[in-house]
Amino acid sequence: MEKILLIDVDGTLVNYENQLPTSAVDAIRKARANGHKVYICTGRSKAEVYPNLWKIGLDGMIGGNGSYVEDHGKVVMHQLITKEQCTHVVDWLHARGLEFYLESNNGLFASENFETAGESVIQLYSARKGKAGAEQLRVRDVFPDMIFGGELYRDDVNKISYILGSYQDFEDAKKEFPDLQNGTWGGAGELALFGDLGVKGITKAHAVECLLEYLGADRADTIAFGDAKVDIPMFECCARSVCMGSGGEEAKAAADYVTAGVDEDGLYKAFEYLGLI
């Protein structure tokens, strides 16, 4: 029976240093050869899905934590922050002295001082995963195509990520922006390094429902793969769910099955366990 596989990217398909295990590529290609459909389901916007991922062979993607759905190049659903909402967020973050970047399918647009302010955060993000030379990383190493000096009042934004000065920034953002979806992220272990703001009510689960309706597919044939709290709605939406062994404890508890870590051929082993390959 053909299955629809929904795979988170960071921490699941690639590790938090953006390294793609060859075993994961092999697993996806074998699964598709067996008739299964494979979609990445990620917080990244399309501009952050670099050619190495598309070259694996994918049927499409869910991006922006659920604001965008694409099947074989056709846009199925795309919900954006309004220009008025974007302007409100940009002005609030500027007034608070918080650096940020706007995530659009047309690119990543950084605030004036994000490159400098983001360096220590990016280094911490990588060091917590034991990456050698993390202290030497620069923002452009992690975001090679990020645009600096671009227009920040935009109408093509999926979501906005901002560097947390403290967790209170996130709490205050929830009060300031009740019309937007508020979250945090920071890599393995669920440490909050960034806050993010997206379209209200948008989740990976909602996007999965939109994709299934478009495909005329049955929820009973879906399997979700993830590693973090943001993936739990996707786990709950799909018939079966798998968490990476390197994932967060809440995500592991919510999943039906816990496989090996992302760097321990976890995706390949899960595909074998589920009889996909």
Task: Give a brief description.
The protein contains ten helices and 14 strands.
Output the radius of gyration.
18 Å
CATH architecture of the largest domain: 3-Layer(aba) Sandwich
What's the average pLDDT?
A: 93
For the secondary structure, the number of strands is: 14
Please, what is the CATH homologous superfamily of the largest domain?
HAD superfamily/HAD-like
Residue fraction in strands: 15-25%
The name of the CATH topology of the largest domain is: Rossmann fold
Major sheet strand order:
5-4-3-2-1-12-13-14
Shape: globular
Low-pLDDT segments, ≥5 res: none
CATH class category name of the largest domain:
Alpha Beta
H/E element sequence: EHEHEEEHEEHHEEHEEHEHEHEH
Distance between the termini: 12 Å
What is the percent of helical residues?
Answer: 25-40%
Instruction: Please tell me the total number of domains.
Output: 2
- Determine the number of helices (DSSP H or I, runs of at least 4 residues): 10
Structural class: alpha/beta
Described by strand count, sense and barrel closure, the largest sheet is:
8 strands, mixed
